[in-house]
TrEMBL record:
Residues that hold heme according to the record: 438
Subcellular location: Endoplasmic reticulum membrane
Enzymatic reactions: testosterone + 3 reduced [NADPH--hemoprotein reductase] + 3 O2 = 17beta-estradiol + formate + 3 oxidized [NADPH--hemoprotein reductase] + 4 H2O + 4 H(+); androst-4-ene-3,17-dione + 3 reduced [NADPH--hemoprotein reductase] + 3 O2 = estrone + formate + 3 oxidized [NADPH--hemoprotein reductase] + 4 H2O + 4 H(+)
Family annotation (InterPro entries): Cyt_P450, Cyt_P450_CS, Cyt_P450_E_grp-I, Cyt_P450_sf, Cytochrome_P450_Monoox
Cofactor(s) it depends on: heme
Record function comment: Catalyzes the formation of aromatic C18 estrogens from C19 androgens.
Name of the protein in question: aromatase
Keywords for the protein's UniProt record, in alphabetical order: Endoplasmic reticulum, Heme, Iron, Membrane, Metal-binding, Monooxygenase, Oxidoreductase, Signal
EC number: 1.14.14.14
Lineage: Eukaryota, Metazoa, Chordata, Craniata, Vertebrata
Cleaved signal peptide residues: 1-19
Family according to the record: Belongs to the cytochrome P450 family.
């Protein structure tokens, strides 16, 4: 029996290996029209990505060598078609092809089948039901909540302003955006105000769980052995991940249950809004499709958890690199500060109406997003052949849009209306584009404007030339050694 068992195992292994080899040959044949950098027969291009801060430089170099698109291999059997020409981007993003599960699958145990990863009719339905949650009437009161969170963070920066020592931005900004989204999604104040600390002393369990989940998802994405479910499950990080998921789900379910009880007597959104400002959870709980069917508790939890992930980690990356860019470009920083000072007219806060009064600051924000896109790659799964403008056709498989490719000098004037109109709109896609574009991009842009305006009004940002960021690709753009700046108080505050 033992001999027969070994023979069966060997037979299954040979069959599986044969299938993989056949698949590899088919993939190579399908990608003949899209040459790429030489790949190792076993490791592919994995050895090129050493997590030393030079990975994206290599991608930029490859983009210059191979116009429009090129292939990258992860091991001997998994390949991605990396596209970087605006017309190629337009072709892909004009479709409703689903998100690729190569990286996104690591998030699913937390966020479930939410808007980020769902596809087909479920995605269409939920996208339609969630859209009212990002109407300007809903977003307008959020500006004050964002402002309050930003001011709390800036108060804590006073000690850095007095010493002129450099400090790491991302942790501070990440906690601030998490605090902000807790208020906007749940109408809850987090305990982030108690203490900014990597150990989270004094903060509540949910805040710690969400922060841990963001860290662990990014860690798993970077550590290749952790891509295997069994290895990750058995690791200490896997145990920590499952524990954090349990805490996050329990918290979200409790908040949903309590809010349902509050809303039993008030089912109309306008009647609820007459009593208080609506939050994201209200919209989800009151949403009805054309058949008057509401979202299930599981769907609501998935969408809230998706909003928590997408709305704090990506925005934190964006804000951190914007502040860094302004520190490195003091002349543009001062022009933004002058504009902000004039727009706020002596106020120490920013209102909804002020967001449209800072066009140069907005251009600087967009230029930073171009140089340091919070999501450096947009992954799609091509389910059927896709033909591009030059006649080349990509077969079904993995595809990625390289958002991080065009690296030039910092020049906000690229985003003057006359300059924007003269180039393809798909040359700048930090929030994706097409039918699956980021539903929360206005929310994110508003928060970036609020934080940048309040920061520049209060502090002068100074580059630390000895601590330049080593940028690494992950689920969001990060720096291997953190993002450091120095600050000092603005001399003449209004």
């Amino acid at each position: 029996k033992s001999v027969l068992f070994r023979h069966n195992i060997l037979f299954v292994a040979v069959c599986k290996l044969t299938a993989l080899i056949v698949k590899r040959r088919e993939t190579l044949r399908n990608l003949e029209a899209f040459p790429g950098p030489p790949a190792h027969w076993l490791f592919g291009h994995v050895q090129e990505f050493k997590q030393d801060g030079t990975e994206l430089d290599k991608v930029v170099k490859w983009g210059e060598q191979y116009p429009f698109a090129f292939q990258i291999w992860f091991g001997p059997f998994v390949s991605f078609l990396n596209i970087h020409h605006p017309d190629y981007v337009k072709t892909l993003l004009s479709t409703t092809e689903p998100k690729d599960d190569f990286g996104y699958r690591f998030i699913i145990p937390w966020i479930g089948d939410g808007l980020l990863v769902s596809s087909g009719q479920k995605w269409f339905r939920n996208r339609r039901l969630l859209t009212p949650g990002f109407h300007y009437d809903i977003l307008k009161p959020y500006v004050k909540l964002m402002s309050d969170s930003a001011k709390t963070m800036l108060d804590k920066w006073e000690s850095y302003a007095q010493t002129s020592e450099s400090f790491e931005l991302f942790e501070h900004v990440s906690l601030m955006t998490l605090d902000s989204i807790m208020k906007c999604a749940f109408s809850l104040n987090s305990a982030f105000n108690v203490r900014l600390s990597s150990h989270f002393s004094g903060t509540n369990a949910y805040i710690k769980a969400v922060y841990d989940l963001s860290f662990l998802i990014n860690l798993r994405f970077r550590v290749i052995p952790y891509h295997n479910n069994i290895i990750f499950h058995l690791s200490p990080h896997g145990f920590r991940f499952r524990k954090a998921v349990k805490v996050a789900h329990h918290h979200t379910e409790e908040v949903i249950r309590k809010r349902r009880e509050e809303l039993k007597k008030e089912t109309e959104l306008d009647r609820i809004q007459a009593k208080r400002n609506l939050d994201f959870l209200d919209i989800l709980l009151c949403a009805r499709d054309e058949n008057q069917h509401s979202l299930s508790d599981e769907d609501i939890r998935a969408e809230v958890d998706t909003f928590m992930f997408e709305g704090h980690d990506t925005t934190a990356s964006g804000i951190s690199f914007i502040l860094y860019c302004l520190a490195c470009n003091p002349e543009h920083q001062q022009m933004c500060r002058d504009e902000i000072t004039y727009a706020l007219e002596g106020k120490d806060t920013i209102d909804w109406e002020d967001l449209s009064k800072i066009p140069y600051t907005t251009m600087c924000i967009k230029e930073s997003l171009r140089l340091y896109p919070p999501v450096p790659g947009i992954a799609r799964k091509i389910t059927k052949p896709l033909t591009f403008f030059d006649g080349r056709t990509a077969a079904a498989g993995h595809c990625c849009i390289c958002v991080y490719l065009e690296i030039w000098v910092f020049d906000p004037l690229r985003f003057l209306p006359e300059n924007v109109s003269s180039r393809s709109p798909h040359a700048f896609v930090p929030f994706s584009a097409g039918p699956r574009n980021c539903i929360g991009q206005t929310f994110a842009m508003n928060e970036m404007k609020v934080v940048i305006a309040l920061t520049l009004r209060r502090y002068q940002l100074i580059e630390d030339p000895d601590r330049k960021p080593k940028v690494i690709p992950s689920l969001v753009l990060r720096s291997l050694n953190g993002i450091h700046i120095k600050i000092k108080p603005v001399d003449h505050q209004p």
